[in-house]
Amino acid sequence: MRLYRLLATAGVLVMTSTVAGCADHDPSSPLRSMETGKARMCLEAPLDNTKIIDDKTLLLIDRGGQAALAHMAGSCLLDSTSPVIMKYHGTTSVCGPLDVDISGTVTGGIPTPCIISTLEPISKAQGHALLLGGK
Fold first, then answer.
1. What range does the domain containing 105 cover?
2. pLDDT per residue as tens digits for the range 67-87
3. Which of 14, 49, 52, 105 could form a disulfide with 79 if both were Cys (CB 3.0 to 4.6 A apart)?
4. Residue 110: inside a domain, yes or no?
């Protein structure tokens, strides 16, 4: 019986400390980048548009209009008419380079893997301008 009371008390203490820790979190505050400490923006799939800007840059726009440029470490987007293949890891949020695998130009039926070096958030207006053909 004493063991049961001890376990129940421990459980209450854990729950109390968890709730107290959650009380400090402001849901309206943006997520912070671990690298820079700056607020970061996430895109949510399904993406509304993608466009190959050049052989190392892919424009991503989600259904909410949030836009970002995915800069690749090497040239992997050689053909602007090839499909872009995206494979998500765990969630469909794209907040950083490791959240999605992108494959570009399909040569001989095998897609070329891309390594995302940075994900640069841009404004909705910049994203729309790039989508329509501007640079």
1. 43-131
2. 999 999 988 888 888 888 899
3. 105
4. yes
